Amino acid sequence: xxxxxxxxxxxxxxxxxxxxxxxxxxxxxxxxxxxxxxxxxxxxxxxxxxxxxxxxxxxxxxxxxxxxxxxxxxxxxxxxxxxxxxxxxxxxxxxxxxxxxxxxxxxxxxxxxxxxxxxxxxxxxxxxxxxxxxxxxxxxxxxxxxxxxxxxxxxxxxxxxxxxxxxxxxxxxx
Length: 174
Prior knowledge:
By secondary structure, this protein is an alpha+beta fold. 44% of the residues lie in helices and 17% in strands. The chain has helices at 3-35, 84-92, 120-128, 138-162, and strands spanning 42-45, 50-56, 60-66, 69-74, 78-82. It has a five-stranded antiparallel sheet. Strand 2 (50-56) and strand 3 (60-66) form a beta hairpin.
């Protein structure tokens, strides 16, 4: 046989070897991660549920999903073992900031609009003039919406009264 005819088969076998090798590495890493689980560590299941490991057995894991909720899962159902910081951030919304002295960005813009005492005359002048942008108060908008709905209902009733009533076909006309 010619070497050129064997080349596609060699390339195919090499590609299959590389793919199975990387898949085996990933499986081995996942197995090591699951074997390193300890009670008290936070985990995410393959279904997306976050819980705390309560007890680790040979093939199963007992998870604490909440107060009084203990669930028994197969070890293979654990998708990831999370660090304490990551688990607290996801489940409890607790951010662990390494830079505690860093400036914190406010949730609202109120601190950005605060004025100093040097800007007090300009701020007082701007407060004197209120610009009407044509916006209505919430109560007025609600009243307008109620009136519009009532007008529509009255129009529909008037239209229904003006139309001749339909019958099932029993009529005196011949």
